[in-house]
Write a structure and sequence with these properties.
10 strands
Length: 306
């Protein structure tokens, strides 16, 4: 397989404004570090102000001129999402890249501040609301991009509107995670269709990191099956956060991408390797399902756009 993109070829990003959710660690941290190295103004959006400050110190230690600002964002709270968007818009009149990266994986059953199942609420609804509240900045910025991070797990996802929050039971940590990651792709593709419908030059794209060493696995580290496969998987399926971030960075910066494309590692089973265009499940491309999810998401969040 040939790789037709390299991070070294990304041009200077001076004057561009980038928002990275979950930017204080893992993939988000690597993306913030990269964009700052290209002279973009980067907003690190995460729940913990303390952890953001520590992360920014690390970036500035290697790049004293890095322009990175922390703004608190808790995607488990629509109140926090609204507060973040208000603060961002009071400081910035453009938004070139919105990287919807933050998320949780395979957590025990719980609910967000607004009563949503945690994984669906944080991974999908929080980012749906955030994008909608920032949409005017996105649309008014020439050739802006929204990049939403999904997962290979989306292929196992199903959307059951009659039991969307598992209020009728049936919760499984992976089942709920897969549902949220399918929702991420349905949202990304539907957003692109809506951009095209209004003739916007903005693009909506998606990406997944394959298998990456981040703290996203913290809720499954104690499980026997995970402890058994991890030593083997680290050599075959798992790569560094820096490599895992490359599909996200490519989707955000490659001048040759088209709206609606999806990027992931090009190696074995899309688990590791340099970023390439990849395919997603048939269900993720279901336009009727995407439209209904969009409408339900508007009702649940109270955020309406496009």
């Amino acid at each position: 397989m040939s790789y037709d993109w390299s991070p070294e070829n990304v041009p200077d990003m001076s004057g561009k404004v980038v928002v990275v959710t979950g930017g204080n660690s893992g993939l988000g941290f690597e993306c913030v570090r990269f964009f700052a190295s290209k002279n973009a103004s980067v907003v690190m959006a995460s729940r913990s102000v303390e952890r953001m400050e520590e992360a920014i110190k690390k970036i500035k230690a290697e790049n004293p001129n890095a322009d990175v600002e922390p703004i608190q964002l808790d995607l488990a709270s629509l109140r926090s999402v609204r507060k973040f968007s208000k603060e961002f818009k009071s400081k910035y009149d453009r938004l070139d890249i919105l990287l919807n990266n933050a998320g949780v994986m395979m957590v025990p059953y719980g609910k967000t501040e607004d009563g949503f199942e945690l994984q669906f609420g944080i991974n999908h609804l929080g980012h749906f609301a955030l994008t909608g509240l920032l949409i005017n900045r996105i649309l008014s910025t020439h050739q802006s991009r929204v990049v939403t991070v999904s997962s290979l797990g989306h292929k196992r996802g199903k959307i059951d509107f009659d039991n969307l929050m598992y209020e009728k039971g049936g919760y499984g940590s992976f089942r709920a995670y897969a549902r949220s990651k399918l929702a991420n792709l349905l949202f990304a593709y539907e957003l692109q269709r809506r951009f095209e419908r209004i003739g916007a030059d903005s693009k909506s794209l998606a990406a997944h990191p394959g298998g990456s060493r981040t703290n996203l696995d913290r809720y499954i580290r104690g499980r026997l099956w995970y402890r058994l496969v991890r030593p083997f998987a680290r050599f075959v399926f798992i790569q560094s956060p820096k490599m895992g971030a490359l599909p996200l960075i490519r989707a955000a910066t490659d001048p040759n991408v088209k709206g609606g494309e999806y990027f992931g590692p090009g190696g074995f089973m899309e688990q590791r390797g340099w970023p390439v265009r990849v395919d997603s499940s048939r269900l993720s491309k279901d336009e009727k399902l995407a439209k209904r999810l969009w409408e339900v998401s508007e009702e649940l969040t109270g955020v309406r756009y496009l």
